[in-house]
# Entry
Amino acid sequence: MPNPTAIYPGSFDPITNGHLDIISRGLQVFDRLIVAVARNSEKNALFTINERIDMIRQTVGDNPRLEIDTFEGLLVDYAINRGAKVILRGLRAVSDFEYEFQIAQMNHTVQKEVETLFMMTSVPYGYLSSSIVKEVASLKGPIDTFVPTAVKQALEKKFSNR
# Structure
């Protein structure tokens, strides 16, 4: 059976090296990976949807097996509409698992044909989150090892305007 299309969803506000690690490793497992940027009006995002998509495109380059898209509504409905059978989620710690497990169970109840695959984040990124990166960047701390250059520049620009 061929490897299916997978959806890697998130807010990616901004994308980090941890996210890029999951994308890279996801492409080793799946024939096609869709990085799906969530439109969530309840989250107070630093970057607009278009800014986030642009940063992702700048950092992942051109790969015919990788697509960047955006969605709103139920993730499992989006997955079905895109022909994906798998939702790929990165886990950093046990605390991530508890929340992600609940979401995965709900998603599977709503759409039985969509599975969730958990991938452990590589050791160097186990502590890394977009929230931590934004906080360090807002305080003018070094973020070079956390994000790609394009994201670092976008963060510096955002915080220099505040």
In short: The two ends are 52 Å apart (CA to CA).
